[in-house]
Amino acid sequence: MGSKAQIQTVKAEFLDPSLYEDSSLSGVPRLSRGTLVGALSRAFDLAEGRKPGHAQRVAYIGVYLASDLWLEPQRIEEVFFGCLLHDVGMAAMEPVAPPGGRGLRFWGGARRSPEHPPRAAAGSWAEVIESIARHCESGASIARRMGFPETVARAVLHHHDCWDGSGRPGALPGSQTPLVSRIVSLADRFESLLDTEASPLVVRKSGPRLVEEMAGREVDPDLAARMADIAGRDDFWLGLYDNDLGAGLMALNYGGILAREELFDFLGVLADVIDVRNAREEGSGRRIAELARRVALTCDMTERRADLVKVAALLQDIGTLGVPARYLRKPDILSVDEMAAVQMHPVYARDILGEVPGLGAAAWWVGCHHERVDGKGYPGMLEGSEVPMEAQIIGICEAYDALTSDRPYRRALPREEAFDVLRGLSGSRWDPYVLSRFESVAGPFEA
Ligand SMILES: [Fe+2]
Ligand SMILES: [Fe+2]
Ligand SMILES: [Fe+2]
Fold first, then answer.
1. Is 112 helix (H, G, I), strand (E, B) or coil?
2. At what angle do helices 415-424 and 389-403 cross, to 10 degrees?
3. Whose atoms come closest to the Cα of 135: which ligand?
4. Do the beta carbons of residue 183 and residue 46 sit within 8 Å?
5. Both 284 and 213 in a single domain?
6. Domain end point (choices 223, 250, 277)
7. Do 396 and 349 share a structural domain?
8. Ligand 3 center from residue 319 Cα (angstroms)
9. Does residue 254 contact residue 32 with C-beta atoms inside 8 Å?
10. What is the CA(143)–ligand 1 centre distance, in A?
11. 430 - beta bridge partners?
12. How many Cα atoms occupy the beta-carbon half-sphere of 156 within 13 Å?
């Protein structure tokens, strides 16, 4: 995975758990839907190959515009969630690049982020349009499954629709789409355009013109006029380029605090999406997470800490949204470059979860879920007790589930054979204590 110097840098970073672990933490913090989606939207940016923070900036623009229109608080919240979730549908698929690498301005843009190499395979225009339609529809369905109101689901469904009725098969023209949808669509397009400009200074100057150019063709002309006015205000730009933009959005705590079961259900929907992306049976992530919670309890952890292990396990592979789905589903052996890309997924996950207040420890564990006690794991090559026990628990539950499930390249192993494989890795992949705790739970669990 890259040069020796790169490996040492990654290892040095991983050797400092204090960067992530919150020592006062004993369990899952109280989290609102807004905080969670605010942070996890960074994973959706990765799936679309956008600059990190795209969805958060779209939410800032949308909420600013909705507030300026004096919409009622409930509508403003719907704009907020519509903006953050607009590309959640990309999580289960892969974008298709237009032929010849041309941009997709009329569909809200699909420019590749400079931080990420072009990943999408180029397709025909028909395939591009099909992928736009598909991620809008699947995104709306994910929003519904997460329990958001229909207004939010419709905002996700219509985010590529143009005012003139183009943009997506089935697009609704003019004011036939709800106001919340039109605000989300405008905010997404505007942010995408700003992203193509050279610097914030250029953007400050060209912003009003950029939004006016879209009026009447791509976006609602009345909304565009209001946005052009906003784009002439300094406080709007100062807020947009504030380094704490994400934290500020999360602190709004929109959507209410999630109770314990609500949190598991909410993250379970994301885990289902991650299963699909990784060509695993839907429900595997939830199964692994519950198993991990039970194993954690037998390792003398408190109920609250075991719950946090479950949260981490549900989100362990959220970083695969930053890995091309075609690598994750490839039935053959991966090339060196493909493998290096796949091995970045714990790093992406760690960085995304590290943004959620109170989930520092979970971020650290998720970042280590492919480490091995013999030091041959990735990405940090931690050794022995450097590998947190919680990460070992998550890793062993995932491995057992993988061994006992059908994969594109092999059939499921019978349970006893799966246990033999895990035992064969005792002392190298697994800490023998964690393996023994796992065996004490996994037997009756599936009996
Ligand atoms: Fe989109
Ligand atoms: Fe977008
Ligand atoms: Fe993983």
1. coil
2. 140
3. 1
4. no
5. no
6. 250
7. yes
8. 8
9. yes
10. 14
11. 426
12. 30
pLDDT in tens, 251-293: 999 999 999 999 999 999 999 999 998 888 899 999 999 999 9
Task: Please give the tally of structural domains in the chain.
Answer: 2
Shared domain for 304 and 440, answered yes or no, is yes
The reply to whether 175 and 79 lie within a common domain is yes
The whole-number pLDDT of residue 97 equals 74
Residue of 400 and 197 predicted with greater confidence = 400
Say what the pLDDT of residue 442 is: 87
Supply the DSSP symbol for 154: H
Q: Is residue 174 domain-shared with residue 207, that is, in the same domain?
A: yes
| 6 CA to centre of ligand 3 in angstroms | 20
Neighbours of ion ligand 3 (CB under 5 A): 317
Domain enclosing residue 307, as ranges = 4-27+257-446
pLDDT band at 17 (very low <50, low <70, confident <90, very high): low
Please state the rounded mean pLDDT for residues 384-388. 93
Q: How far is the CA of 327 from the centre of ligand 2 (A)?
A: 23
Q: Are residues 187 and 331 in the same domain?
A: no
Shared domain check, 263 and 167: no
Average pLDDT over residues 365-387: 94
* Collapsed DSSP state (helix, strand, coil) of residue 215: strand
Same domain, yes or no, for 164 and 239? yes
pTM listed for this prediction: 0.90
Last residue of a domain, one of 229, 250, 271: 250
Whole-number Å distance, alpha carbon 370 to ligand 3 midpoint, is: 6
- For residue 290, what are its two tokens? 């519950």
